């Protein structure tokens, strides 16, 4: 296997509607770097045929059974030849300097390099609600800074990081990158957020999809905290005490999320205030759906 400068791993599940924009954005990168693109696909739709017919230069790894994101990431890592391994979700669109900028920062010694997330379908109100729910800590207006404990998305890693910490947890339905990044941060690995590294996220436009997604996200978040994989809060030990404390996610979680969202938008991206106000009722529905998910996950 010939070594390249950078490998891009694209985990894919039923991505037929978004994978074309994703791969076109990688083909349009403004860089002289030698890079490869690896799609790890476990779809039940026509994603594999689409990629094979339109993107022959992509390395396609088809899996017979559905994979969680961590398992798909791991297969990509094991088949990558790059010194740097970047991950781009199949519902994301990389801006033209996405590769070049992150590679330069890795050359400066950073083990992990993250970037900003933009809204790739701003015409949808539901899409804006999801964007503010998921990526409020990755606004393009956030300043460049070294990361010591904050949430970070849009990441790439030096290959040796996986030699030190192993691979992603393949059993987690979501949040596997947050768990992995927390290990790195606790051990003082140099990580940086660079707002010039931008990926646009193609958000859901269906209210049902929004609510189901964030309910599930809340469930898995609570279960990861309970299992000790995350340490944002501790679950009470007994079932009775957990039941009595269900009011905490149902009451305080929505308050904290609303406060955090407005604070970050006002501070880092004030031009998005009109969009936030416009989608605010749907944003609240998403928050309460996630809060219910946390409550349910704490009892599982």
Description:
By secondary structure, the chain is α/β, with parallel strands linked by helices. It is 46% helix and 18% strand. It has eleven helices and nine strands. Strands 1, 2, 3, 4, 5, 6, 7, 8 and 9 form a nine-stranded mixed β-sheet that branches. β2, α2 and β3 form a beta-alpha-beta unit. The relative contact order is 0.14.
Number of folding domains?
A: 2
CATH C-level of the largest domain:
Alpha Beta
| CATH fold descriptor of the largest domain | Spore Coat Polysaccharide Biosynthesis Protein SpsA, Chain A
Query: How much of the residues is beta strand, in percent?
Result: 15-25%
Number of strands: 9
What key phrases describe this protein's structure?
nine-stranded mixed sheet; 9 strands; alpha/beta; 46% helix; single chain; 300 residues; Spore Coat Polysaccharide Biosynthesis Protein SpsA, Chain A
